[in-house]
DNA sequence: TGTGTTTCTTGTCATAAGGCAAGAGGATTG
DNA sequence: CAATCCTCTTGCCTTATGACAAGAAACACA
């Protein structure tokens, strides 16, 4: 099953709908370090990742690069607020590894979104799901220890650990790479 | 301007649309301590608050009550994931003060949502905005100090400080009420 | 009015995580 | 191949926050 098939899996999206949707996407390759979006820009498209790993990040008040999210295979790299509300983004989206993705620009998407009932439903469900994931993460940031958060990541997204350097993972978990290194040491000890 | 007028303000929602929407809501009063939704339930409605303050909260791994959000006047108390994906919620929604709100049940909303283009747009924008707010908060939880987060809250949502006890505010900021008390002491000193 | 109950502050002590610096391997590149 | 980055680990010390407990003040209410 291709990445686009995975991404757009939905009961109301029939094969003929999917065909139209897939054709609206434009495939391209990205290289480690490439930026899909930079702070201050207004997003004009979103990206379905079929290979590789993307991260979103911000700079905090004293210039530290803080990873805010990872987008892996069969996931969508998108800044919802910037794309749909036409405002400058506050994050950067950058490739962690080489990879491949399918992009669709806003105008094209809007056309399909308004004419295709299934896509409309898919969109709402995708947003619900995103809100849910983000909420889960917020709660976890508050109620779990750094070590717990690391173990969850290890359990739920092992591919991230394999593809991203520890400094990205550390800032994603809300700690420094130094602390993460110590946490990993502790966990190995317990084995 | 009434709470519902504020909540449903949108260029594509015309007076005649709004009239229909308003009529679909059911007004009722709540009392401090009342629950709008409890963990494990599947949400059947959402609530536009016209008076008072609601909070959402969870219990963390060792039983601490952690406030995850505040919903004040002209805001919507909703668990998007539970309502639209029909899954049990993981949060509680409880009244912090006495108040008043307008509820609309899922079925009624769905009918309007699918028949009224403006409401559809409004819904998508509302979700974008929510995602944005939540993302901002996540970033802030990582990149700002507890003291900074308190000052932001004070600046941006002073009404919350006036209506909610410190223990709720503290857990919302990710710290204990003890720590918040000390932070407040420091801030007063700097004045 | 009196008696709980909640809210907020404060003290003491413990601990997780950060700041900084050094060093060891690996990878990259000219 | 040498030079130079990254990446990851580790040691030492500091600091923010938490756990727990006690007390003051405000509030609820019978």
How do the helices and strands follow one another from N- to C-terminus of chain A? Answer: HHEEEEEEHEEHHHHHH
Structural class of chain A: alpha+beta
The pair of chains with the biggest contact is: A-B, 34 and 34 residues
Q: Which word captures the global form of chain A? A: globular
Question: What's the assembly state of these chains?
Answer: homodimer
Number of helical elements of chain A: 9
Assign a percent range to the helix content of chain A.
40-55%
Low-confidence stretches of chain A: none
Tell me what portion of residues of chain A adopts beta-strand conformation: 15-25%
Average pLDDT confidence of chain A is: 92
| Strand order in the sheet with the most strands of chain A | 1-8-3-6
Q: How would you describe this structure in keywords?
A:
homodimer, 191 residues, alpha+beta, four-stranded antiparallel β-sheet, DNA-binding
Would you mind describing this structure in some detail?
- The first copy, chain A, contains 9 helices and 8 strands.
- The first copy, chain A, is of the alpha+beta class and about 190 residues long.
- The longest helix of chain A is centred in the C-terminal third of the chain and has 27 residues, at about 115-145.
- The interface between A and B is medium-sized, with 34 and 34 residues.
- Chain A binds a DNA duplex (30 and 30 nucleotides) through helix 9.
